[in-house]
């Protein structure tokens, strides 16, 4: 049975020979380099103890230095499964989700036609290369020289020139016996809409041959020399040879270079790829006049685990990066992702290399940001998060993006990283609503530090933080309801910041408490639970009791927030007094904040009751704070009596 043209190439491009062979052998981990697809094992075709069987996973070939067996995935299955060629193809196609086509009587005819078209394309390559040496191409040669391309580079890339005439290529190939219909099939000429003879597709353009992974000429890209041309860059039309959505410029050489360890870089156009390769980055490719497609992405992952997307430093380049990211998210699997280089504003790789040299590009590639960072940047850049509604919309957008990831393990890790980034974002100081000052961090006053409350270096605030953290660590299932509040909370206790960050990151892991100990430090976690009051809290004594944990955390958060809110009011009242603007409104605010503490049920937790008294409004208050509050109220009364405030 004959297969349609391109079917076997497609099958081989989807297969990992390492995975196919790996079912039959044990890899020698000392000799193998998994990251580069360089794999060694004892040969499955003859008895041996040493690892002389070599698999080049990137090129898709194997060879045994002992018995000299060699081949690809199809031949390996044929030999090891004792099946014929078509049966091996069916086995492998089933593994990668490809349907083997029904018998096609014309398959050989189509294959012969593709070979003939490829020969025509090679003749066109040579014609265009010769034209670059003519007088008509002087302007094109000057342009290429200004772009830094030497004669040797022009030869390496087989760059040519399509003269301005309407039928130069057609007449040349007709004279060599190439039929007009073949030129149409190859996309080298176009039908006239005015009933005239077909005319050349490319005219007055610098020509870049496009080759498939096996090195066969399949299409061209042309750069216009006329500034008034409607299309600055023009690719060949779709043909039996050329499917632009499944083709990468410089695919074959880049695949070989990536297999030797060079970083795989995806740029936007031919000149970027050529510049990168000429400056020491041979594993460079580009899509062809379209955004990166799913098929191209799979081709990239066959060459490298983390291709680097290097796009122009402008709005269009950033949009292109976002499109690639959205395409990649559902396709991510363990070990396969993308990294992104966003070049300086207004520059592409060619510009950067000519301006600052390879070292500047190498530094950007080495610091390329992972996909999750680009996702975070898109969702946060230019977004105001100053209200609960806006934060809710922000959270929803992030959940939707992460929800695009099909692989549950990858999705879980993305959720963990996003929680960590949210933690950092909302932990940064924010201005106070009324005064524009930084929100004060609650700390113990000197008198309180020496009290029994401060045992174990914990203030009252720190002790409430400890109860909240310990409860959620013992019952992480209760965290979801309080995630936003934990992220926004200003932690003051020793190690509490680290514990909170670890809790947010590891709440969904199989053994959260063990993972938190690793992240925040076992000693930090041990000190948290060592405090007597923390250990006696119902939420801590009953791990896994979600309802008990929820009630405990809600109560402690309410008390903590009320206390800190009252403290801010006291500090602002002090400022108002200093500015001689204090009056009844300040007294009222102090009373309201005290009442808020009262409603929150603020009771001392394990503290020395002698440290507490009652404020004028009946709310319990630390003696140290009561003295401060009495002093403020007395000062307000004095100012009012003096007539200094109304």
TrEMBL record:
GO terms for cellular component: cytoplasm; DNA-directed RNA polymerase complex; primosome complex. GO terms for molecular function: DNA binding; DNA-directed RNA polymerase activity; zinc ion binding. Residues 262-344 form the Toprim domain. Its cofactor is Zn(2+). Binds 1 zinc ion per monomer. Residues 606-625 are annotated as: Disordered. It catalyses: ssDNA + n NTP = ssDNA/pppN(pN)n-1 hybrid + (n-1) diphosphate. Belongs to the DnaG primase family. RNA polymerase that catalyzes the synthesis of short RNA molecules used as primers for DNA polymerase during DNA replication. This is DNA primase.
């Amino acid at each position: 049975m004959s297969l349609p043209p391109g079917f076997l190439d497609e099958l081989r491009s989807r297969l990992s020979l390492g995975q196919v062979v790996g079912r039959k052998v044990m890899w020698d981990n000392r000799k193998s380099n998994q990251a580069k697809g360089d794999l060694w094992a004892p040969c499955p075709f003859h008895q041996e103890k040493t690892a002389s069987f070599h698999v080049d996973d990137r090129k898709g070939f194997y060879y045994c230095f002992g018995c000299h067996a060699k081949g690809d995935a199809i031949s390996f299955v044929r030999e090891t499964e004792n099946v014929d060629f078509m049966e091996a193809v069916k086995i492998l196609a089933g593994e990668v989700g490809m349907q083997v086509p029904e018998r096609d009587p014309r398959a050989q005819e189509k294959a012969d036609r593709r070979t003939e078209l490829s020969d025509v394309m090679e003749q066109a390559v040579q014609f265009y290369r010769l034209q670059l040496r003519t007088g008509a191409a002087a302007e094109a040669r000057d342009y290429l020289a200004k772009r830094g391309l030497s004669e040797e580079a022009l030869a390496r890339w087989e760059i040519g020139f399509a003269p301005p005439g309407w039928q130069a290529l057609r007449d040349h190939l007709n004279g060599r016996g190439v039929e007009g219909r073949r030129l149409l099939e190859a996309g080298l000429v176009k039908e006239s809409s005015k009933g005239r003879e077909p005319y050349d597709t490319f005219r007055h353009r610098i020509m870049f041959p496009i080759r498939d992974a096996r090195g066969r000429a399949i299409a061209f890209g042309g750069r216009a020399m006329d500034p008034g041309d409607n299309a600055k860059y023009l690719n060949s039309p779709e043909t039996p040879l050329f499917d632009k959505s499944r083709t990468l410029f410089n695919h074959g050489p880049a695949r070989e270079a990536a297999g030797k360890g060079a970083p795989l870089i995806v740029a936007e156009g031919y000149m970027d790829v050529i510049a990168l390769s000429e400056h020491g980055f041979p594993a460079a490719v580009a899509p062809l006049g379209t955004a990166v497609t799913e098929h191209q992405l799979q081709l990239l992952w066959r060459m490298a685990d983390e291709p680097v997307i290097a796009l122009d430093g402008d709005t269009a380049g950033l949009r292109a990066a976002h499109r690639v990211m959205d395409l990649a998210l559902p396709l991510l699997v363990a070990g396969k992702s993308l990294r992104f280089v966003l070049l300086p504003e207004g520059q592409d790789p060619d510009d950067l290399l000519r301006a600052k040299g390879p070292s500047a590009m190498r530094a950007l590639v080495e610091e390329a940001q992972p996909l999750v960072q680009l996702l975070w940047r898109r969702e946060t850049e230019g977004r105001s998060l100053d209200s609960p509604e806006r934060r809710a919309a922000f959270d929803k957008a992030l959940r939707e993006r992460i929800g695009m990831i099909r692989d549950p393990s990858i999705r879980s890790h993305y959720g963990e990283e996003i929680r960590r980034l949210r933690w950092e974002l909302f932990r940064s100081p924010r201005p106070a609503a009324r005064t524009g000052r930084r929100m004060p961090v609650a700390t113990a006053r000197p008198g309180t530090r020496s009290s029994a409350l401060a045992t174990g270096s914990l203030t009252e605030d720190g002790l409430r933080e400890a109860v909240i953290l310990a409860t959620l660590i013992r019952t992480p299932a209760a965290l979801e309801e309080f995630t936003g509040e934990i992220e926004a909370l200003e932690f003051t206790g020793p190690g509490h910041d680290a514990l909170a960050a670890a809790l947010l990151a590891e709440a969904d892991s199989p053994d959260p408490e063990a993972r938190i100990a690793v992240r925040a430090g076992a000693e930090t976690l041990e000190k948290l639970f060592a405090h007597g009051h923390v250990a006696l809290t119902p939420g801590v004594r009953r791990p896994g009791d979600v309802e008990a944990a929820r009630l405990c955390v809600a109560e402690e958060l309410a008390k903590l927030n009320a206390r800190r809110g009252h403290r801010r009011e006291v500090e602002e009242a002090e400022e108002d007094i200093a500015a001689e603007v204090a009056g009844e409104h300040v007294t009222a605010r102090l009373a309201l904040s005290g009442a808020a503490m009262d409603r929150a049920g603020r009771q001392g937790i394990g503290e020395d009751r002698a440290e507490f008294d009652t404020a004028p409004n009946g709310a319990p208050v630390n003696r140290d704070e009561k003295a401060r509050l009495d002093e403020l109220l007395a000062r307000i009364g004095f100012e009012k009596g003096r007539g200094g405030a109304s």
